[in-house]
Amino acid sequence: MIGKLKGLIDSYGEDFVILDVGGVGYQVHCSSRTLQALPSPGEAAVLSIETYVREDQIKLFGFRTDVEREWFRLLQTVQGVGAKVALAVLGTLPPSELANAIALRDKAAVSRTPGVGPKVAERIVSELKDKAPAFANVDPAVVHLAGAIDSDRAPRPVTDAISALVNLGYGQPQAAAAIATASRSAGENAETAQLIRLGLKELAK
């Protein structure tokens, strides 16, 4: 199996690059984000590779980092997500943002991917929610709160405060993060109004 390729960029196609490795041109399929980040033809590049072997073909998928390749594999463990959809998701969200979106149950961010509807986004978030925090760079308390909100276990003042911030125009993940911080400093028995006030201060920082 090919795990990594290092060579010179030969040319680009719509969703692939030809990488010249010692005179052999490998056709490597990449996300739009990866293709945009690669250098001009004739310049050196290194790609982490996922090799697909089928009865009728061998296909190579390339990634700038091993973490991106790991997400490509993880995404395909979700029912209804194949290589094409996984690449599209990674073309829309870099691995860190994808991890944060899943950890925070932000289905809307995942469904921004062309070809990914609400049902598939819901499956990606719900089936990978236990794996995402390991890759995410968000406060574990925020991840815990997102899980509580998602399963209707969050205290009423907390959900009301988040809803109020969303109504003011803040995004759900942004509002949840601010209220999680506010809730931690105000204590478990904080009222909605206090959480909103503290949340707005947090967002203004």
3D architecture notes:
The chain has about 200 residues and is of the alpha+beta class. It has three domains: about 5-65, Beta Barrel (OB fold (Dihydrolipoamide Acetyltransferase, E2P)); about 65-135, 5' to 3' exonuclease, C-terminal subdomain (DNA polymerase, domain 1), CATH 1.10.150.20; about 140-205, no CATH class. About 50% of the residues lie in helices and about 20% in strands. The chain contains ten helices and five strands. A five-stranded mixed β-barrel has the order 1-2-3-5-4. Strand 4 and strand 5 form a beta hairpin. Helix 7 (about 140-150) crosses helix 9 (about 170-185). It is elongated. The protein starts with a strand and ends with a helix. The mean pLDDT is about 85.
Strand ordering within the main sheet: 1-2-3-5-4
Helix content: 40-55%
Can you give the mean pLDDT? 85
Second CATH tier, the architecture of the largest domain: Orthogonal Bundle
SSE blueprint:
Blueprint (H helix, E strand, L loop, with lengths): L3 E9 L3 E6 L2 E6 L2 H6 L6 E10 L4 E6 L2 H10 L7 H10 L2 H9 L3 H4 L7 H11 L11 H11 L5 H12 L4 H15 L5 H13 L1
Parallel strand pairs: 3-5
Antiparallel strand pairs: 1-2, 1-4, 2-3, 4-5
Helix pairs in contact: 2-3, 7-9, 8-9, 8-10, 9-10
Protein name: Holliday junction branch migration complex subunit RuvA
Subcellular location: Cytoplasm
GO molecular function: ATP binding; four-way junction DNA binding; four-way junction helicase activity
